[in-house]
Amino acid sequence: MKYLKTYPEKCIGCMTCVDVCSNLYFKEITPEKSCIEVFDLGDGNFDLSVCNQCQTCVAECHTLALTVNKFGTVMLNKNLCIGCYACVAVCPTDNMRTYMKGIVPFKCIACGACARECPADAIEIVTED
Amino acid sequence: MKYDIEKLKSKHKMLKEFEYELKPLDKGYSDRTLYINLSSNEIKEKPVPEEMKEKFIGGKGYGLRLLWDAVNENTKWDSEENEINIAIGPIGGITSYAGAGKSLVTSISPTTGIPIDSNVGGHFGPYFKFSGFDALEIQGKAENDIIIYINGNDGKIQIFEAPDEEINSHILAEQMTDMFADNEKERQHISTVSAGRGSDHVWIGCLNFSYYDKRRKGLRLKQAGRGGIGTVFRNKKLKAIVVKYSGLKGNTNNPVDMKTIQDTGLKFHKEMITLDDKQCHMRTVGTAHLVEIMNDYDLLPVKNFKFGNHEDACKIDSSVWTKLMTQGVPDGCWYGCTMSCAHAVDNFIPRTGPYKGEKVLVDGPEYETAAGCGANTGIFDPLAILEMNFYCDTYGLDTISFGTLTAFVMECYEIGVINKEITGGLELEWGNWEATLEMLHQMARGEGFGVIAGKGIKYMKKFFSDKYGADKQFLNDIGFEGKGLEQSQYQSKESLAQQGGFYMTNKGPQHDEAWLIFMDMVNNQIPTFEDKAEALHYFPMFRTWFGLQGLCKLPWNDVEPENNAETDEPAKVPEHVQNYLDIYKAVTGKSLNKEEMIRQSERVYNFQRIFNLKMGHGKRVDDHPPYRAMGPLTVEEYDSRQERYDSQLKELINIDPEGKTSEEKVKLHRDWREDRYEKLLDAVYKRRGWTKDGVPKIEHLKDIGMDLPELIDTVKDHQ
Description:
The structure holds 2 protein chains of 2 kinds.
Chain A: E1 2-6, H1 16-26, E2 37-42, E3 45-49, H2 56-60, E4 66-68, E5 74-76, H3 86-90, H4 113-117, E6 123-127
Chain B: H1 5-10, E1 13-19, E2 32-37, E3 42-47, H2 50-56, H3 60-70, E4 83-87, E5 103-108, E6 115-120, H4 124-130, E7 135-139, E8 146-151, E9 156-161, H5 169-180, E10 190-194, H6 197-201, E11 207-213, E12 218-224, H7 229-235, E13 238-244, H8 258-275, H9 290-296, H10 318-324, E14 344-348, E15 360-363, H11 367-372, H12 382-395, H13 399-414, H14 433-445, H15 449-453, H16 457-468, H17 472-478, E16 481-482, E17 485-486, H18 496-503, H19 517-522, H20 529-549, H21 554-557, H22 574-588, H23 594-614, H24 635-640, H25 642-651, H26 662-688, H27 698-703, H28 709-715
Parallel strand pairs in B: 2-7, 8-13
Antiparallel strand pairs in B: 1-9, 2-3, 4-5, 4-7, 5-6, 8-9, 10-11, 10-13, 11-12, 14-15, 16-17
Helix pairs in contact in B: 2-3, 3-23, 8-22, 12-14, 18-20, 18-26, 20-23, 20-26
């Protein structure tokens, strides 16, 4: 299974990952449209939240818009999605994301763009069985 | 594949083609309906007048409005002018809130002679609506078997003769999907309405609405079961109505405020996912979870409603169905329904009938089927119940009516009203599932005793007394029908409010309008006549609202927010009511409060009541239950609960049971129970703004803004 592994203790809260992600998929820089979220816990501590590819959402999808690719990553086919948000509700880590005015949700597909730019090595793409 | 689609198509004869302009919906409406006349092959669009939109809202409101204008007071179910109308309301078709894909079907019923409305899931309603119409109105009769095809992608409608297609639904729906889907991807964009061989011969016909189950790669069927609309469908020589629509997105309904719909829907989804395992288990077993609850509370109908529980109920309870039903599959009958209660048993192999030995899918069973075809007939074999479920569906027969009428037939057989000679050899004793299935197959073959039974209890009561000299009064006491419709599967003996909930309904005794047993009998929350009358005003009106909008009732209270018990009125589930008000506004842009919500329903509810009057019914005399629905009819029933009934004599009726025979005590109960039902009728009619004879008063119609000239004209001589 290929997924984005996080090391929140290394995070410096620079938001580079958030900017890279939203810019890559939505051509705008806004935390609302990033697949990865950074939470400021105060005192220089941060938490990171992103899809762990657990596949719970796949079983819930009525239209088979959510599938698992050969790397074990959960992919969303926007053409098949009818925006019911059952996947959003069922996600145990709240990482099936939505944004204002959006019909279909979005999620991390472990592309690694954010990990490449992270200056603190707080995120990396890993592959595990 | 057992059939050759090209060969089937080669026999088609085109009767009519029609093109219409495709246009996007506006705030949940297209503001036009589609009219098809099968006698003349006329097809036309009809604009929806502003008054119709304002007062009838959509769904069954639209269906009943169109039906009223189509029929006259002499119209029978098989008259040419009778219609089958299918409509889905403004909210129907949204994909973000659970239970938003219901179609409402209306017609003049074969068994009641008055309007019936029946709600059903499946994909037809939403796809038809998104094809561009708020309602489908079908009038007239074809000469030969025909299919109507609505292509909502291209704006084309066809009527063609189709002599060789199957009639039984599980095969026909598959044929239609194969025929009209251009590729595998398109299969999910097709939905078919069909009936079955049973609908050809008996009066309890139902309609099947299909949807393509992508995970199973097969067709699923949901039923518009009540009131015999399948029989009307086949009488019109309709084989199938097929729709194709490929453009579904989350915002196809074109609401004004998508964000509110999504946020409200998401809140509900989370409740459903986190609370269902602690509450109703809808996601694992659906409504069949009720079997053991009803049995525990003495509410499960056993042997034609004589008793309320049975030691063998554990053989047909939810633990059995959970194992038989395929688990872990999202089983919503419309997209986005996380209640997901439309479960199925895969790879079932029938032991009898034309599909004996084949692997089939059984949609269900629902509680009603498990209780009606099971406990009520003394059949506690789950596989026999599944087989009845499967055959009823594919033959286009209503499992509720089938269960209740079979229970009636069995009691008649057991007490000698009918015998083996009359049934043509069927030994219809309690629990005989093989004879029951044979009777079901007879309905589909149009032969034998099945054809008599399939005309329903009202017909049989007259037939048995006219032909075999049966005691009319006794048959009236044990025949669980009201207005001609068979009752659904709950014991109402100990809940006066539920007796009203069943028998004061517009279309006959079903559980769509009111289910008050726990409020009344278990929790004693509505002790006085006035309390019961208030409940019999509010809940039927509130639940009517789902039928105006295209919504399913189940997500309203088959899961409840965690803090629901702490609210002022837990029985109303206030947070979910607010959800519906929010969604209505988000779709239509119109504000709605709780009072106006009830008012919307009240207008249509009173319209339907007056429609009954127009058809020669709709009065006090039509609102009475069979006595067994009100209390212990026989000594056997009395003695089975002697302690309870004796204590009621003492505490509620102020009569000392000591020294009285069971016969005397049965009579004392009957007098008391029948009297209090009359008092309940008085209280409910008063609350609803009706006369003592159950006719809406003119001033009440004015109050609710429903003083339409045709309604005043109908009620004015009955004030």
